[in-house]
Amino acid sequence: MRRLTVGQRLLRRRLLRATVTIAALLATLTACSSDPTPARPSTTNQPGGTNGSAADTTYQKGTLRVLASSELSDMQGVLDLAEKQTGVKVRPTWTGTLDAADLIASGGADGKYDAVWLSSNDYLRLSPGVSRRLTNETPIMSSPVALGVKAAAVKRLGWHPDRVTWSQVYDAVAAGRLTYGMTDPVRSNSGFSGLISVASGLSGAQAALTDADVRAATPKLAKFFAGQKLTSGSSGWLATAYTRHDTVDALVNYESVLLSMNRDSHTGLTVIRPRDGVVTADYPFTLLTSAPREAKEAGQALTTYLRSPEAQRALTDETFRRPVVPSVKPAAGLATEKRRELPFPGTRSVADGLLNAYENKLRRPSRTVYVLDTSGSMEGGRLDRLKAALTTLTGTGDSPTGDRFRDREEVTFMPFGAEVKEVTTHTVAPGDPSAALDVIRADAASLTASGETAIYSSLEEAYSRLGQGSSDTFTSIVLMTDGENTTGTSAGDFDAFYAGLPAERRTTPVFPIVFGDSDRGELAHIAELTGGRLFDATRGSLDGAFEEIRGYQ
User: Vertex 352, ends 346 and 354: CA angle to 5°?
Assistant: First the structure.
């Protein structure tokens, strides 16, 4: 497969969006609509920050515009202390590691952001042209990838937590004695770090992973990822899904997240750092060279405070991350014995090759039903935006990792008005992805708007359909609507229907998208009921919402 540079990836994505949305833009201009369709990075709401699409990126003195990993929302208390001490306010825009790399490498962050604060800059540094855009990289704290295992599973497997290796974990998974959850490596650095840790441990690599190491480990990796039964686009949602469903034995996540789960949700997980090595996040606060002088000065004042004993004690006590200042002791519960630190891949080709193998060969396939509102209110620009968003997901046969439906993925479109209008299902074949992608693209283009809005009846039909076929998949429902339920099953009836589903089918989440005039409260209830997550396209882009949901499928 031909690999593209970061700049080429971003340019291709933008050109594709421009091509498929031209009709929508013309319709929008003609109607003088106020619905914007800005680019990503993110479309979800997070505490203490803004979503990327809706973020106000105007520079304000004393306020740092920061591209930040969503998991850093738990730092708000420490940042409040920092603002009191320094007068510097952080205005975060939540993003994924790979999206941040794309944006910065292409120059898209210049003038809009002053700094980037990710769990790691390792992938960022592999992107061509990035180094000249970064300055003053300051590690703030650290947290290794770890395995959180139920106490009963540790006992059943006869493990001594301080002696466990990745090979032992593999043996347990391959024998069907251990299941686990992990975030999507394409969207979350904890998943990427976990993937590197497992690949390094199973390949026997003594240095940074090479293409040969990945090939050697692929047979074992395929068996290992067959045991992954839970996925997510973020570390926080993975923890929530685990607590809600309790369907897996373990989680691959940051040590800090696992310990926070034990404290906040009383999960009782045994936190294991495999003795043959792990990848550690160092959370570097990094200024952009394009930032105004005043912003750089504010950033230096902020990082100086964040590395002070006061801030270091607060962050380790509140978040269970490890302080980087030697004089500050780690929070109680953090193991002190050293573990081998596994190196990050040294080249972009190895990193991208590992991600591509995971998405299209190693992980369990995805099975997704898109319940799409095509009622009369979608006529015109809104329908054009929906078609454009779905077309973006089809990409092309040689699209880079994460930019299209995955190989082996089953994609079902279920457009509805007063009732479900039709159901089309296609599976992306590994040998010839373009064939299915072309048909899915044609299905999106053929959507038409008419009728009332039967949200709950259509969701019931989606759940009924998911009762058919293979269950060995990551299964989810995506609901996009621009209005309220006006006909068919009521909200109360749907609640009763959902409660009556078999337990295994109730683990299928619904990811609703707020769009147009949809009822946020109605959709938030659906997400909460089913264990999904609400995405917002009213202040951001619809294609951005669809793309972000990909990390949860």
Answer: 90
